[in-house]
Specification:
The chain is mainly beta. Strands 2, 4, 5, 6, 9, 10 and 11 form a seven-stranded mixed beta sheet that branches. The radius of gyration is 13 Å and the shape is globular. The mean pLDDT is 95.
Length: 124
């Protein structure tokens, strides 16, 4: 059973930065698609970035491309999301999720394991 634990959320002003972390435990970390999703109140959950633990080109949603960077530390079974130039519209609950394969765009219904989420609030 894979368990995912996010951390690093918080409140920042527009233009600021945050780094989210997702630590995976249980199961097999290798050969997994690790994804970051977000959900704002009243909106659908959106896949914003994915990375395959075995390597390859990360995926970014257009809404975060050029501002967010997904990375991983396989030795720590941890995936990161560096968020720069944050905007008020980035305010949401951010979730980490795992799936055996990556798709483009990442669809929440295909991801079987989820963390509990971490809140990101960006003020103008």
């Amino acid at each position: 059973q894979v368990q995912l634990q996010e951390s690093g959320g918080g409140s920042v002003q527009a233009g600021g930065s945050l780094r989210l972390s997702c630590a995976a435990s249980g199961g097999t970390y290798r050969s997994k698609c690790m994804g970051w999703f977000r959900q704002a109140p009243g909106k659908e959950r959106e896949g914003i970035a994915t990375i395959y633990t075995g390597g390859g080109t990360p995926y970014y949603a257009d809404s975060v491309k050029g501002r967010f960077t997904i990375s991983q530390d396989n030795a720590k079974n941890t995936v990161y999301l560096q968020m720069n130039s944050l905007k008020p519209e980035d305010t949401a609950m951010y979730y980490c999720a795992s799936n055996p394969i990556c798709s483009s765009p990442p669809l929440p219904r295909f991801f079987g394991y989820w963390g509990q989420g971490t809140q990101v609030t960006v003020s103008s």
